[in-house]
Design goal:
mainly alpha
């Protein structure tokens, strides 16, 4: 995946909110999530990233196993292939307030930006992704950005 800045992740947050807002209040199609449920999922993922980033020693050379999994995650996200979400299932009321939830996602993005500006080298901020394994900050931002773009592409489908 290509490198992505925290600002680009912020732009994707705004983009996904706009995309979801266009079908907020509409019923879900055939087992898909409503706009509010998708937003709840994104809030859970963003919260996990904010809480999951830890200052650690730079990651050692990774096992090929994780590189293959990381490549698969990137492929699925880039091509907007629908897959079942294993960990971050929506838990909100489908009629929850979209605007307040969008505000919550933006607050989490601000926390992520604050975390990025703490001066910790990017190779020492590490998060353990449930599928792709240990990621440094730059890899984490690339996957978070790809995940947001995935939901922009899937919005309303």
């Amino acid at each position: 995946m290509k490198p992505v800045t925290v600002a680009e992740v912020g732009q994707a947050v705004d983009g996904v909110i706009v995309a979801l807002e266009s079908f907020a209040g509409q019923p879900a199609k055939g087992g898909a999530w409503t706009a509010v449920q998708t937003l709840d999922h994104l809030i859970q993922v963003h919260r996990g990233v904010v809480l999951g980033l830890r200052a650690k020693e730079p990651l050692p050379r990774r096992a090929p196993y994780f590189l293959v999994r990381r490549t698969m995650v990137g492929f699925v996200l880039r091509n907007a292939i629908p897959v079942p979400a294993k960990g971050a299932q929506p838990s909100c009321n489908p009629d929850a307030d979209f605007a307040s939830m969008a505000g919550d996602l933006r607050k989490l993005q601000a926390k992520l930006e604050s975390r990025a500006s703490e001066g910790i080298p990017a190779d020492q901020l590490v998060m353990n992704h449930p599928v792709a394994g240990p990621l440094n900050f730059d890899e984490t931002m690339a996957i978070v950005h790809a995940h947001l773009v995935y939901h922009i592409k899937r919005a309303g489908k």
